[in-house]
Amino acid sequence: MKFRAQLASIALAALGAAGTLTARADSGWSQLNMTQGVTDISRRIYDLHMAIFWVCVAIGVLVFGVMIWSLIKYRKSRGAVADTTLLHSTRVEVIWTVVPVLILVLMAVPAARTLVAIEDTSKTGLTIKVTGFQWGWRYDYLDDGVGFYSHLDRKSDAARELTSGIDPNTVDHYLLSVDHPLVVPVDTKVRLLITGADVIHSWWVPAFGVKKDAIPGFINEAWFKVDTDKPGLYRGQCAELCGRDHGFMPIVVDVRTKADYAAWLKQEQAAQKPATPPAAAANTAAPAT
Amino acid sequence: MSTAAHADSHDDHDHKPHGWRRWVYATNHKDIGTMYLVFSGCMFFVGGMFAEGIRAELFKPGMQLFDPQFFNSLTTMHGLVMIFGVIMPSFVGLANWMIPMQVGAPDMALPRLNNFSFWILPFAFTLLLSSFFVPGGAPAGGWTMYPPLTLQTGASFPMLIFSIHLMGASSILGAINVIVTIMNMRAPGMTLLKMPMFVWSWLITAYLLIAVMPVLAGAVTMQLTDHYFGTTFFTAAGGGDPVMFQHIFWFFGHPEVYIMILPAFGIVSEIIPTFSRKPLFGYEAMVYAIASIAFLSFIVWAHHMFTVGMPLAAQLFFMLSTMLIAVPTGVKIFNWAATMWHGSLSFEPPMLFALAFVFLFSIGGFSGLMLAMVPADYQYQDTYFVVAHFHYVLVTGALFGIMAAIYYWLPKWTGHMYDLKLGTWHFWLSTIFVNVLFFPQHFLGLAGMPRRIPDYAVQFTDWNMVSSIGAFGFGLSQFLFLYLIIKCVRGGVRADSRVWEGAHGLEWELTSPPPFHSWSTPPSAAVIAHGAEH
Ligand SMILES: [Cu+2]
Fold first, then answer.
1. Are B300 and B316 a contacting pair, CB within 8 Å?
2. What's this model's pTM, rounded to 2 decimal places?
């Protein structure tokens, strides 16, 4: 427990340092670390990432330190004479086998706990089916009768052509904006049922700490719950090679306040209605024949 | 002793075939070793060209040079060529050259098989590389060949599958030869625990190869029948399971990672004692560490696919088994550090590359440990963080190990000492540029850039430019290496049999260059004792 607390404090200190570095500046130079994200899970992942990072740094400083010391101190050019009796030592060999095991066990505990939390898909408030296809996403709000396709937006799509002559820097959120973002409410456990229509894709929004493969014939589950005070646009990309336009099927999630979301849903339901009656009619007609 | 051996074998020199027959009909382990090394050198420049193409396209955002499909072909072919055409054959080449000399044998146990296993390779790669010119272009589904995407490959699909079959056959035959040689041709008195570390590492690697190459062959054959004969092993629409391919592939793929690194462990374990003028620390622990890494490599495969949606228990198992690999790997690093402790160090090119290996491979090991943490892996998976990780392991690991080996044994092979100054230049240029190339990719991955994309959002521009500059520098530096090797083969200061002051092992008891049939009479117990002071 003490070790964990220490890790947490180290991670927190690093978090401060890294936070200033990754202050979402437009300059790419400052993008050095994982973002903390806007969900409880994404922050736990971030803490885990920083903890294991600092464990690695500590081991690295120790081991590299010993080696660099040897490189400086035991140079032949400085007259070092080899001690050829140093063949092995059971004691140090036991130490450097057992200590890493202990460190690993200590790291495995928080990792396992976070994993258990991630896998807990109970008590969800909203279920959306996500289908990856070559090359875009389809979102279906299973309980609300709303669904739409989401593609790379036109400006990015024009600029990414081989001879477009358009400077990507002039395009707003080049390659990271879509025509129809996924809209979800804050503070709601949103469950995603993820599948693929043709090949395997992977739905990834770093700020939510969610990456799950969209596999034809499989339905994968994932969930996220965005903090109440963090509405906004969150961007991600397909993370599994899926063919020619794999790099051009971004994900944008528009997180709204609950009231805004309800208004959007109502509007969307109304807009999609005209399309439903003929389909519904066809469905009811079918059994009659 | 070595002069006596030389005199005994002198009539064999007359039987040495000349001209093209020497190479096409080659049965001599050194000639075949040379062919393996020359072949992988050629492939290194081919695969490197693909990499430079990738880095050129990624130099800045927007599509500059290629169609995205061609870009995907480049990443796919870069992976296949570097793994199956560079790293694996060059280790087999080194095994061919060194194992008979290190165990006191005249040649490999199965010379004709040896010839066959090499000559398969040029055909395999001609087939694979010519796929660029067929309708639909070269394979573009990634070197991991995941279905259903790979099933969308055009006319190059069967070329891909059959070239994989050929490469696999070549590897298995090579591995059989290594095992038979080590088990049967050791000089009397050289017990298993007196074998040099390079021989040990290759013995274990050979068993890994025989265990997993057929698995890969099976997996790609199932794709072949899915494509042409109506089976649906991996097609969900027919009741198949695309994830099953990933399980089978990585059951091959993870031991494959160690196939590409264990011989480098062996090489580094030879070089560090030589230039520390001190025996390897914890020889037996090193052997057991390699063996446990090899065993563990069979039970960690699913850590390559944490995001496919596995049961919680399976994810926990693969996380723990993966973390466990850090323990024997740590033992190896600590033993190398302890070998240098209280040594008498000098820094010739082989030692420089071996040291860079220890430092930079450790960095790859650290990021590997980070990747083992499943929740964090969800963020790292399929990003440039992973790309950085496996290039630290495979370029500054496996490839630097190979370069260290070439710098270590080149004077033995050619009988000439190479230009040490040039070698040192090559080392520093390679080491600096390789870090400029791959270190920023950690940042890109953490900032959210997926791998295998031909174009990216503008906030990733800066570090991509740095990475590309590193790639160009690293690529150009390798021409220095090429020049150094050619110069050394053609002539230079004569190397004596020991070459390096602190070198121990049977290969250093032979002349430089060694006689055509390395040990035509087995070395005496005294020679083995002199050589085997590990
Ligand atoms: Cu995709």
1. no
2. 0.91
